[in-house]
Design goal:
The chain has 82 residues and is an alpha+beta fold. It contains two helices and three strands. It has one domain. 33% of the residues lie in helices and 18% in strands. A hairpin with a 5-residue loop joins β1 and β2. The termini are close together. One of its GO terms (biological process) is response to auxin.
Length: 82
Amino acid sequence: MGFRLPSLQKKTSVPKGYLAVYVGENQKKRFVIPISYLNNPSIQDLLSQVEQEFGFDHPMGGLTIPCREDVFLDITSRLQRS
């Protein structure tokens, strides 16, 4: 199963079975990830941080993950290989 990091699609286009997320501490970058990644403990830890920082109000219109981009890419690249 492949995915695009970063997404080269239009900002409004997310394929079925995928989710758009905005990642970064200051400057946010948009990524499109498989929904199945949400079951991974590393992603769930990041989502817990999101809930603490943003609650359920996401000003970017999508899910915002306030972590460094390189950390997110490391986690998703490990998920992609498994």
